[in-house]
């Protein structure tokens, strides 16, 4: 199924005399996992609240499939709020079924979905436990299940990875990937830049209420790639080129890292490596997401 795109256009919002959002615009495309990254207080939660309609922004608009968000469209969003908000004294599965019913899912369907979500999130054995008896990380998994119980057309998740152990993180990541692969636009905020870098197709970087970079994650990194290359020669882990305009950064088991000045030819580096032995790796080094982030917020 093809889902529409979410577009956020020129959102502006003040809290008193503090401008929290200052003309925020970006798109969350169907089938794309979009990571929403920014420092504390940058405006991620406020933007997400405006998207799902719990906050009315001072200016700007949110459209889904080109149409303004209606109440009906909002019911098709799966939202995991920062403040969470499930019922601590209700049983896990019962709670999911209840939330599904509130969103118009027939009881039998909600029961089947709850069981299947708990299974994929590794919580089947806790289905009949009261929520508050689960660890915080497991409560968080239930929170994600709650956001998915009505098979939403759009997922907005505020820090779904915070507080999860590495295994739970992988489970969560696989689940979000699965929803995106099914065509759903997915926007999630996170401070775990390595996870975002590994997982996301698209990025939105926000700084002090303004979007400072947005779009295809790889393209954003490629645009900012310098002239650093990694080359690995089989059997010669410490090899270093001796060529004009090339500065060795490091040489080791991960290969040889070299900075080229503007006049140096990357092919000369490759040829020199090939003269030493079989080349097992040769690539231009892309900046990491944390490099990218540091650069755009400077
Ligand atoms: N209800 C509120 N009343 C007053 N100021 C607020 C309110 N909510 C947010 N703010 C302010 O708006 C700005 C943006 O906050 P927001 O919560 O959107 O940031 P964030 O990017 O989600 O941060 P974090 O990563 O810390 O969750 C901050 O300066 C914050 O203090």
UniProtKB/TrEMBL annotation:
Residues 6-233 form the ABC transporter domain. Pfam families: ABC_tran, DrrA1-3_C. Belongs to the ABC transporter superfamily. One of its GO terms (molecular function) is ATP binding. Keywords: ATP-binding, Nucleotide-binding, Transport. SMART domains: AAA. This is ABC-2 type transport system ATP-binding protein.
């Amino acid at each position: 199924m093809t889902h529409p795109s979410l577009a956020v256009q020129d959102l502006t919002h003040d809290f008193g005399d503090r401008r929290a959002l200052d003309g925020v615009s970006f798109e969350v495309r169907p089938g794309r996992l979009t990571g929403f990254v920014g420092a504390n207080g940058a405006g991620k939660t406020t933007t997400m609240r405006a998207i799902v309609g719990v906050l009315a922004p001072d200016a700007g608009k949110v459209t889904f499939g080109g149409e303004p968000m209606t109440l009906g469209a909002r019911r098709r969003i799966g939202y995991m709020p920062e403040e969470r908000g499930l019922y601590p004294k209700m049983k896990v599965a019962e709670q999911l079924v209840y939330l599904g019913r509130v969103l118009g899912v027939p009881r039998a369907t909600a029961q089947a979905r709850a069981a299947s979500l708990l299974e994929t999130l590794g919580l089947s054995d806790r289905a009949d436990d009261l929520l508050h008896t689960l660890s915080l990380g497991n409560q968080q998994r239930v929170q994600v299940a709650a956001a998915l119980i009505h098979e939403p057309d759009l997922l907005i998740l505020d820090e779904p990875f915070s507080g999860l152990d590495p295994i739970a993180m992988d489970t969560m990541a696989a689940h979000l990937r699965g929803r995106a692969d099914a065509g759903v636009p997915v926007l999630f905020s996170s401070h775990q830049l390595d996870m975002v870098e590994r997982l996301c197709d698209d990025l939105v970087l926000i700084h002090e209420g303004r979007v400072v970079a947005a779009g295809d994650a790889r393209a954003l990194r490629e645009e900012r790639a310098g002239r650093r290359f990694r080359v690995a020669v089989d059997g010669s882990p410490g090899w270093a080129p001796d060529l004009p305009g090339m500065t060795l950064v490091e040489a080791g088991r991960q290969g040889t890292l070299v900075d080229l000045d503007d006049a140096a030819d990357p092919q000369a580096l490759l040829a020199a490596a090939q003269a030493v032995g079989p080349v097992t790796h040769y690539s231009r080094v892309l900046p990491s997401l944390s490099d990218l982030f540091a650069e755009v917020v400077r």
